[in-house]
Design brief:
The protein is an alpha/beta fold. It is built from 14 helices and 16 strands. 49% of the residues are buried. Bound molecules: ligand KE4.
């Protein structure tokens, strides 16, 4: 079938929106394709502007753990918008959402709502710097925490070498305050604290990495970060924008039994509407204005529509005790099925999965950090992406993202996906 409408829309978009998209990865450049313009979604499926149907494994990059247009979310939005869309004043909905988050996320005593994951991590970093009086921060290669200047930093030339700007426009003075270290490398973190002792405000980490493809933490990694930050008077920030409510109601911190000082959330907690949140211990969060002196603000923070959609999504997740087990089964069937079929055709692949987030790497593996992830055959991934999309399966347009399964996907969708992949692996 033609893709005339998507192509026409893309031509129009490129004249008035940089690259024709409002977020770079959507341009599909790394997989040698043009973006599809999506017209609608329902459950596990989306339809493009030319009416073609796809099984969707992007899920809006994570928010749609319940699938598209979930009835509970739509009902909550309809009911709420009838009373108006924004007031710039506190609402009971914000108390409901804050209560849900502090009840579900073990480390949270208090929480502040914002409008994106970037705002959440940027604000958490500022709070950690304000509370500790220190300026340096530690992040990890391959982890993405949004596009705030301090976090758009590439690794320095060697381990424990100060960061270099990851983008034009990020001043060296800012990038130079960030250390980017290899994920899963506790020795590198230990060395950084020894070299910059007393200067590091915080370590921010994706407790399960999702932005270099899925990379789980080594067993000692997260507990080691907790111990090192505690010993050196730095704060530990878990960026759970992806893993929050994805890996369970308590996210990765509940799954691995850790107690970070601050946690950043996003995606799922907005039910598909713009949202972010950061929260943690009362003694830390109380330093935020207007109670404290660390400034942070937002016109639409706690927006009623995002709160209503997020509350409906979280309450739906909480109401079904078997939900995460079913997600686990569906995701395991998909991830293991893809690896098995690819290897049967002689392809060198490996895979990582935690809960309902997984990545098939065109890489013999194991993929344990960014350096090993970068050894993947991204050209072959591009061929895989394009062939799957032509046959109605919509994957992330990058080897370095996560395949997201929703509650709307079942073993029927998995079988359909594996049958398509099987045909493609034969000639990939
Ligand atoms: P946003 O500002 O895009 O809402 O969130 C930034 C962010 C923070 N932390 C983590 C762990 C994240 O994964 C993200 C954003 N995720 C990417 C995809 N992996 C968003 C996709 C995009 O940039 O268009």
């Amino acid at each position: 079938m033609s893709q005339d409408n998507s192509r026409k829309l893309f031509e129009e978009a490129r004249r008035i929106i940089p690259g024709g998209v409002n977020s770079p990865v959507r341009a599909c450049r790394s997989v040698g394709a043009e973006p599809l313009f999506i017209a609608r979604g329902q459950g596990a499926r989306i339809w493009d502007a030319d009416g073609r149907e796809y099984l969707d494994y992007v899920g809006s990059w994570g928010p749609l753990i319940l699938g598209h247009a979930h009835p509970a979310v739509l009902a909550a939005l309809g009911e709420t918008m009838a009373s108006g869309t924004s007031f710039g004043a506190p609402t009971a909905l914000e108390c409901d959402m804050a209560r849900l988050l502090v009840d579900c996320v073990p480390s949270m005593d208090m929480v502040r709502l914002v409008n994106s994951g970037t705002e959440a991590t940027m604000s958490a970093i500022r709070l950690a710097r304000g509370v500790t009086g220190r300026s340096r921060i530690v992040k990890f290669d391959g982890c993405y925490h949004g596009h705030a200047d301090s976090l758009l930093v590439a690794a320095g030339s060697g381990v424990a070498t100060l960061g270099i700007p990851g983008s034009p426009g990020v001043p060296e003075e800012i990038a130079g305050l960030t250390l980017s270290l290899p994920y899963n490398d506790l020795e590198a973190v230990r060395a950084a604290f020894e070299k910059y002792d007393g200067q590091i405000a915080t370590v921010i980490v994706e407790p399960v990495a999702g932005n270099m493809g899925v990379v789980p933490p080594r067993e000692d990694f997260l507990p080691g970060l907790a111990e090192l930050t505690r010993t050196h008077g730095a704060l530990l920030i878990f960026d759970e924008v992806i893993t929050g409510f994805r890996l369970g109601l308590g996210g990765a911190q509940a799954r691995y039994g850790l107690d970070p000082d601050l946690t950043c959330l996003g995606k799922i907690i907005g039910g598909g509407l713009p949202v972010g949140a950061f929260g943690g211990k009362k003694a830390i969060m109380s330093r935020l204005a207007p109670e404290g002196d660390v400034y942070q603000a937002g016109t639409l923070s706690g927006n009623p529509l995002a709160m209503a959609a997020g509350r409906a999504a979280i309450e739906t997740l909480r109401a079904d005790p078997g939900l995460y087990d079913r997600l686990e089964q569906t995701s395991a069937a998909l991830a293991e099925g893809l690896i098995e079929r690819a290897r049967k055709q002689g392809l060198e692949v490996s895979g990582n999965r935690v809960g309902s987030m997984s990545t098939l790497f065109f890489n013999p593996g194991p993929v344990t950090d960014y350096a090993s992830a970068l050894r993947s055959d991204t050209t072959r991934y591009g061929r895989f992406y394009r062939a799957m999309r032509e046959r109605g399966v919509y994957l992330a347009p990058s080897q370095f993202e996560a395949t997201m399964v929703s509650t709307a996907h079942g073993l029927g969708e998995v079988d359909q996906t594996l049958a398509v992949a099987d045909q493609i692996f034969k000639y990939l």
